[in-house]
Predict the structure.
Amino acid sequence: MSIRDNVLSLLKEIPENVTVVAAAKTRTPQEILEAIDAGIKVIGENYVQEAEKAFSEVGKRAKWHFIGHLQKNKVKKAVQIFDLIETVDSVDLAIEIDKRCAMIDKVMPVLCEVNIAKEKTKSGVYPEEVEQLIKNISNLTHIKVMGLMTMGPRFGDPENARVYFRKTKQIFENIKKMNIPNVEMKYLSMGMSNSYRVALEEGANIVRIGTRIFGERNYKKDK
Ligand SMILES: *Cc1c(COP(=O)(O)O)cnc(C)c1O
């Protein structure tokens, strides 16, 4: 199957109100352009350096979401490239994004990353910390919180992830009800190639899809 065929068959399955983020780590600009030509509108990148290279060739033909772990020393570059940062998980990181965005007169939409299963190896805040993080960030004038993102545990059987997607959706709805000023709970990013169908059933409106679009990754280059 070509990237084009993968995108066309994927998009047929996805409701119109849902955004597909093509998770492009390790992929070449040519592969990314092939996905865009087939109808992909948003590219997800995990590494700022890789994104810079891709952005220099693909540019504004797509929107760019940052979906990796963002280090503070990469924020200056990141705010120039990305249209949305999905992985804010500390006030410190938010303050840095706010500061760098103020310098270029930009307001950055962000999602807060939730470590919904409290996995030691994963980034994101624990479920009980999400509300406080969002309240703290909401005062910043060059950041706008627009929802939540979660990786969720990876299981062979995506049905096992359902309970975690459901919990994330509950947190999302609870925070939405609070009507926190400068916070607009609009996006819920969850689900990957193996789990997006379950995630959609549990209320995701952003799914992040890599292998289902681009094929298996070269393991050595993957992190
Ligand atoms: C790689 C990646 C994905 C996509 O994973 P696939 O299993 O290839 O679909 C989604 N989200 C994040 C944060 C990723 O790093």
